[in-house]
Amino acid sequence: MVRHSKFGQAVSSFGFSHNRFRTFSSMAEYELVHGTWCQLQECGFYWASISGKEACTMLEREPNGTFLIRDSADRKHFFTLCVKTPMGTRNVRVECDNNTFFLQTDPESEQTAPRFDCVVKLVCYYMKMLKQSKDNSRVSYYIYSHGEKVPLELCQPYLSRMSSLQHLCRKTVNGHVEILANTDELPWPIKKFLKAYDAPI
Question: From residue 88, how far is each of 10, 68, 150, 192 by CA, in Å?
């Protein structure tokens, strides 16, 4: 196993807390988590090291489908998805294995959880699935919590801060594939800014 200390200098330079995450199993896993951490810093719905209890309190009065991402309190994992459901707020573990992220599933479920190289992409996928499932009048994915089978619906993020005008414009651009296909002629600083966060949420 690769200890945190092996990446100590890099961790400090990127703003990681030495005690925030579990031990990385490899440099590839470190780079995966660091890339996700950078995206989460930009997204506005990452609440870092708040507890599950604090997340439940914050989402208690929010509409169903409101969600946030926080650091996992379980040292075996990196991140947790907290989402308000009709049955209350649920904390869903984000698994990390083979350098991909995916949601924890019920061992008896036949569903295969899709995998992603970034937690923000995972969130985007399930938000898109919700829209498609509503169009088809069916639920596309369930989570399992406290023995309950609960539909996973990600509707709107619970923001930790107001987004800048630049970031709002970037999200709009990211939501239009036809625009992204014609960015070659953009100035390098703008292309770099778009690349730093490539999600529409």
Answer: 39, 14, 10, 40
- Determine the Cα angle at 23 with ends 19 and 24, to 5°: 125
What's the full length of the chain, in residues? 201
What span, in angstroms and rounded, lies between the C-alpha atoms of 90 and 196?
30
Angle at which helices 165-174 and 188-195 cross, to 10°: 80
Q: Are residues 81 and 170 in the same domain?
A: no
Q: Are residues 82 and 140 in the same domain?
A: yes
Residue 180 lies in domain: 163-195
**Is residue 20 domain-resident?**
no
What's this model's pTM, rounded to 2 decimal places? 0.81
**Domain identity same for 111 and 52:** yes
Side chain identity at 34, as an amino acid letter?
Answer: H
SS3 13: helix
Q: What is the mean pLDDT of each run of 10 residues along the chain (201 residues)?
A: 39 50 86 92 93 95 96 91 92 92 74 88 89 62 76 91 85 73 77 82 84
Report the run of H or E that residue 95 belongs to, with start and end: strand 88-97
Q: Does 1 map to a domain? A: no
Question: Which of these, 54, 64, 40, lies nearest to 154 by C-alpha position?
Answer: 64
129 and 190 in a single domain? The answer is no
